[in-house]
């Protein structure tokens, strides 16, 4: 039963009449036949593999469980070829627009002159980087890697929930999920034509090499720069370095001399051309950003500005992905590409605007309120689930600092069959596909990371909030 | 007026450093009221100075030196011809619209105390220019010049709580207050020819600029309680002291370090007694 407050969610497996949608027919048949204890056994096996390869993530503010295993749901999510191709076109369009916007903000500023986005939202944005002003990056690519969080609320459209244009993580899960599924359920892959995702790492390396600075040798040297083992995504950094066959380095392994970046190696210094950095802007170079940063490389920004090294993603890309800028994305797509957006935006109230704030305060119990720069599901209010005290607390927060918040309707995220304690039941999901942008093309491997809210009725899919993950299959036809 | 500047920064390392890297914002540009006659940067070690222009249009140099190096000297020597423009800065290179300079930073955040101070000071002033003059005077009168309690990383809020500081603190409190009042403001680093004839100084000077719709950028020097005059040599601008810092550097190895700065600002041609 669904209560009145919760709109009925779109069921990705079943049509309203109870019949199974065509993409899920083979899976449904298989689920009908496979004994429950076999599923249980396979689930434990998957957990064992995850534990053995050591995929964990750190949870902020939870001392007792600093390293946690992310729950893996063995039931795959399936997207039909047609659904994916429309989504992929929408993603390509979205990322091209995001990139063009960033290029413009640090370049000609046409979108500011045309008032597509209010100047204040750019210049007073803490992640806008004045240092990037007028700096040309190779092939005008700023967002080499984007993770676009999308959700479904009906049969037709995908909605973008969030753009991630800084250092989106999660792609290692996408790859590991597939590997584990191939190992555990070979029979399922024999009766589905699932588009492969394994090419992601080759594509990533090709993308990185394609944006090497003009001064780089024929075969440029790529490295991955990590903040180190205490970072919550360290596993992913080392996983990707291993798959790409490139060095995983920390700031202290690199140095700058004469505006060229070198890596210390046992055979002496080696020139570095492209840095896939998983360090925030603030920590990249203590001579330009935070002077107390020990994670970065002194002089890196000088080398970058001299065009001797490429940073991926570029510095300052955060100016495109906060939740206030998000609300302008339909206009940004139209302005830069002259096209109608393929992917929809969720209706967003900007609390910085008095009219919007008034509406939000009046309808707080129905809305989801998010911090403009928040992530990971922290500092969020889900109106329909909140008690009176929490609502009152947010009301005060909103009045005190309205510009820090946006609000959206509570979405009924689509559901997929998931394996939970009581058996197989529908659970809400989202999807983060990964978009690569190189010198001359955009590449999206078919799939992404599906996150699932394993608690019944929960709409929060973030792993930091108890969400799980599942493999995402795009059918070839 | 022709002003001669000699500015030396010396790093001494307890143990020789393996290498060092420095970023310098030590070269003034021309604008109305300021003409650079000659200017030279010398580094004690063999190195190449790579010039570039930073985001705010400041002339910047970076260099790296290979160690072992136990002492690193960065010397500046130059002459600038200046004219009094009553603080109005025209002909400067602008890379951003003024509204960028409403942007707050960690060092120039207006806390509740600065906000209240700014609002109270602004009362009674007729226009933005009047408010900026009032701010300049009030900061000059409220703070006591004292190099002891504050340091390079002291925020405007911290210095204001102490009611003490150096020109950097005065300037950052001005910037934080002006922005709080909705007036774009920025931090300026440079040199100041003292009226009392004291040529040898322990540091360069710092003041602020505020953007007024009718006048453009106007330079306020709250540490002296006056608008900039022909005694001011303007070198670099930024959102705060860190963004306009004359020298930022790092080194590898070398244990502890000691930093010594000497600045001589004198009228060119005049014989210095110091």
Write up what this structure looks like.
- The complex is a heterodimer of chains A (477) and B (274).
- By secondary structure, chain A is an alpha+beta fold.
- Chain A has one domain (43-345, 434-474).
- Chain A contains 14 helices and 23 strands.
- Chain A has helices spanning 25-33, 36-53, 81-105, 110-113, 119-123, 171-184, 186-190, 200-210, 234-244, 300-305, 323-326, 329-337, 354-362, 388-400; strands at residues 56-58, 67-69, 72-79, 145-152, 158-164, 222-225, 247-249, 254-257, 260-263, 270-271, 274-277, 310-312, 344-345, 349-350, 367-371, 381-382, 405-409, 415-420, 423-432, 434-437, 442-444, 449-452, 468-474.
- Chain A has a 5-stranded mixed sheet. A 5-stranded mixed sheet of chain A has the order 13-5-4-20-21.
- Chain A starts with 24 loop residues before the first helix and ends with a strand.
- Chain B is of the alpha+beta class.
- Chain B has 2 domains: 2-81 and 246-267, Sandwich (Immunoglobulin-like), CATH 2.60.40; 85-238, C8orf32 fold (Roll), CATH 3.10.620.30.
- Chain B is 17% helix and 44% strand.
- In chain B, the strands form 3 sheets. In chain B, strands 1, 2, 3, 4, 9, 14 and 15 form a 7-stranded antiparallel sheet that branches. In chain B, strands 5, 8, 10, 11, 12 and 13 form a 6-stranded antiparallel sheet that branches.
- In chain B, helix 1 packs across helix 4, helix 2 (128-142) packs antiparallel against helix 4 and helix 3 (156-162) crosses helix 4.
- The model of chain B has no long low-confidence stretch (mean pLDDT 94).
- Chain A binds chain B through residues 119-120, 123-124, 128, 130-134, 255-259, 286-288, 291, 298-299, 302, 305-306, and chain B through 19, 21, 23, 48, 50, 52, 54-56, 62, 64, 66, 95-97, 99-100, 102-104, 153, 239, 242, 248-250, 252.
